Amino acid sequence: MTNNATTRTEKFVVRFPCGMRAEVSTAANHSHRSMNAEIIARLEHSLGNWPETLPQGETAVPQGSEEAFLLERFRQLSVTKQQALLALLD
Description:
The protein is built from four helices and no strands. Helices cover 53% and strands 0% of the residues. The protein is an all-alpha fold. It has two domains: 13-52; 61-90, no CATH class. It is extended. Keywords: DNA-binding. GO terms for molecular function: DNA binding. Residues 9-47 form the Arc-like DNA binding domain. This is Arc family DNA-binding protein.
């Protein structure tokens, strides 16, 4: 077996939300990097600054709004996922 870059790396498939691939491509072109190199650079930067970059003292959902938040998220789910969630709660 040869000792090249593909044997020294790990592969991981990522599913991008619609439109994100184009954004990564634009950023990579702007930075004169491949899309893979752009993603790696951004992940390294993000992980290198974690957890300092997390919001401090803030909650994801404002206090007192938890029920409305959960209801809105539930309504956004497909019927199948709603049923699965309800089955878990039973």
